[in-house]
Design goal:
about 350 residues, mainly beta, 6-stranded antiparallel beta sheet, 25 strands, about 45% strand, disordered C terminus
């Protein structure tokens, strides 16, 4: 039985506090114990509240060597509404083995190091394999709502008397966990100010420095993230959640650029749902149009079955670009307070009445 060095951790959605009253991962060949409750690997709670799928203090816990888990026993309480959930389920050990071994053999510098369990409202349970440079979603499961037992009631029953506080809706959570197949593509194009359109670099290009991507890092609605360098930035297609934060580093000639993009998950859910409505399994390019000379930038989607780009409108994201360490460009809706990046999040905000999700123009 193949074994791996890792530690099981827990993760939660920000502002959705969770108490795990039972959390065990079981694996083939685990040692017997006098009390069955003592068997298995106990989950380690994380103090991190920075994002779904994130964990802190990876190095302070001793990691041991075990096979991949094949069963999960979990029971937890969501403190915002005092509901209790329980889950007993088999896990896909074979797929976890394949993913972990593939990283060790083909990308040893990007190997996984943690097995992470995410507990969410409405009984949602996510399982990720996570390394320092990327993570993948292994399972998205649903647990059953159950009554609290006597011990849980005595410790946490007071939450039942609190007014329920919904940070995320069931529909938004399920939307966030949907998987799509896409890659990033940086286009060799510039903005034609006269004709108001994007144009490919001419074959005898003498005016624009070639654009070379140094790295792309993205964080996604399903709790995964990825960081890739150099030529890998053109990415093979991969199936994962929708991006909510993208950081791009590139250079053109002697100039170095650094861009941060924040996407609003509500709007990105609407856009992806509209674009993939009849072609959920299609492969899609997320087109990065970067023309710092003309201070023109654009994000768009392009499917293999339709070459016409699907432009992502400005209201769906904010952008700031730096050139050689100095602020170079901000999107029309960008909010800057006291020289710090900030993100205005309005939970119940809706898309503009006149906003065309299909092909909104910038």
């Amino acid at each position: 039985m193949k074994t791996y060095t890792y530690r099981p951790f827990c993760s939660k959605i920000p502002y959705c506090p969770v108490v795990i009253t039972k959390g065990k991962l079981h694996y083939e060949g685990e040692p017997e114990a006098e009390d069955p409750e003592d068997m298995g690997l106990s989950l380690v709670a994380s103090s991190c509240d920075d994002g779904w799928g994130y964990i802190q203090n990876l190095d302070i816990f001793t990691k041991e060597t075990f096979p991949m888990p094949n069963r999960l026993s979990l029971r937890y309480i969501t403190m915002n509404d005092g509901r209790c959930y329980a889950l007993e389920t088999d896990l896909d050990q074979k797929r976890a083995d394949e993913l972990w071994q593939n990283q060790e053999q083909e990308h040893p510098n990007r190997a996984f190091s943690s097995y992470v369990i995410g507990t969410a409202p409405f009984g949602g349970v996510a399982i990720w394999l996570r390394g320092r440079d990327h993570s993948v979603l292994l399972h998205w499961l649903k647990s059953d709502e159950v009554p609290m037992n006597l011990i849980e009631k005595s410790r946490y029953g007071w939450t039942l008397e609190m007014e329920e506080s919904e940070v995320i809706s069931r529909e938004e959570l399920d939307d966030n966990m949907k998987q799509y197949c896409y890659r990033y593509v940086a286009l060799e194009e510039f903005w034609d100010n006269v004709n108001k359109r994007w144009v490919e670099y001419p074959d005898d290009n003498m005016y624009y420095d070639d654009l070379d991507i140094d790295s792309i890092e993205d964080h996604r609605t399903d709790g995964t993230f990825n960081y890739i360098k150099g030529d890998e930035s053109q990415l093979e297609y991969h199936t994962t959640g929708k991006p909510v934060r993208i950081t791009i580093r590139w250079h053109a000639g002697s100039a170095e650029y650094f861009a941060h993009i924040w996407l609003v998950s509500i709007f990105i859910n609407q856009i992806f749902n509209a674009f993939f409505s009849e072609r959920h399994d299609t492969k899609v390019d997320i087109m990065l149009r970067l023309d710092p000379d003309n201070q023109a930038y654009q994000l768009a989607l392009r499917g293999n079955d339709n070459p016409q780009p699907f432009i992502i409108p400005w209201y769906a994201y904010q952008l700031i670009v730096f050139k050689n360490g100095e602020e170079h460009f901000t999107s029309p809706n960008y909010i800057l307070e006291d020289g710090q990046w900030s993100w205005l999040w309005r939970k119940k905000e809706k898309a503009p009445e006149n906003g065309n999700i299909g092909n909104g123009q910038q």
